């Protein structure tokens, strides 16, 4: 039996969407189609590399069970993995048997309002594909750079685009270094910190033709708190 679920995704097709949960990409300028929702969900699960990978796999399976209305299977999956869900809502916070916290956004579990279906969805997807190709061209050529993390060794290589902004590069660094959202990253080159709106070439000495190294300073995340509440969905 399915419970009554709230509307979650911001979409221009849905009124009063300012307080809805935002997905990975900015949804304020694009309509949400079924294909886009499924892709966003797949991409989100594919980038869960922190903490225990087996727990993430368990949460994904439990999420799929809930989407099918199978509450018993979802609860069993959590029990077997030793996970705790104090709020009774999988899209809130879940803790493993060591007290590590896992966050699953609402839009991964709950069927969102405002999904565009049918012929309108096909038209929107075609326009979105064209816009994506244009955006990539506007960002310029793709280069491979080296990133030196304060918390890792040796340097790691990463692909970026010529005019890609620092905010985007920083998120790529998190995925590359397998860091979660609780970590704070500061990108620096030759002693100068970058601002989010800048590009790498905002530094006068940066050149993609040279084998420059981008420094990434990582601050420690907040410690997890071990909870002893009973399991629940």
UniProtKB/TrEMBL annotation:
Domain called DSC E3 ubiquitin ligase complex subunit 3 ubiquitin-like: residue spans: 144-203
Sequence segments annotated as region (Disordered): 1-29
Source superkingdom: Eukaryota
Comp. bias intervals (Polar residues): 1-16
Residue ranges of every copy of the DC-UbP/UBTD2 N-terminal domain listed in the record: 24-117
Coiled-coil blocks: none
Protein name, entry field: Ubiquitin-like domain-containing protein
Organism taxonomic ancestry: Eukaryota, Fungi, Dikarya, Ascomycota, Pezizomycotina
């Amino acid at each position: 039996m399915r419970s009554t679920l709230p509307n979650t995704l911001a979409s221009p097709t849905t009124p009063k969407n300012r307080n809805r949960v935002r997905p990975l990409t900015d949804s304020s300028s694009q309509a949400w189609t079924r294909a886009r929702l499924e892709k966003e969900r797949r991409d989100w699960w594919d980038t869960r590399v922190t903490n225990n990978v087996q727990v993430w796999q368990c949460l994904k399976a439990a999420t799929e069970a809930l989407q099918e209305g199978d509450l018993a299977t979802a609860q069993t999956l959590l029990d077997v993995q030793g996970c705790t869900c104090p709020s009774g809502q999988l899209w809130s916070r879940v803790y493993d048997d060591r007290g590590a916290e896992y966050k699953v956004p609402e839009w991964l579990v709950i069927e969102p309002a405002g999904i565009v279906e049918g012929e309108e969805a096909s038209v929107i997807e075609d326009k979105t594909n064209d816009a994506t190709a244009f955006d990539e061209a506007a960002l310029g050529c793709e280069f491979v750079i080296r990133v030196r993390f304060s918390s890792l060794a040796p340097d790691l290589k990463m692909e970026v685009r010529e005019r890609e902004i620092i905010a985007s590069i920083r998120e790529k660094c998190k995925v590359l270094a397998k860091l979660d959202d609780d970590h704070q990253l500061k990108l620096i080159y030759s002693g100068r910190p970058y601002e989010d709106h800048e590009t790498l070439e905002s530094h006068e000495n940066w050149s993609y033709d040279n084998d420059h190294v981008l420094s990434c300073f990582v601050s420690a995340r907040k410690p997890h708190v071990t909870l002893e509440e009973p399991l629940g969905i």
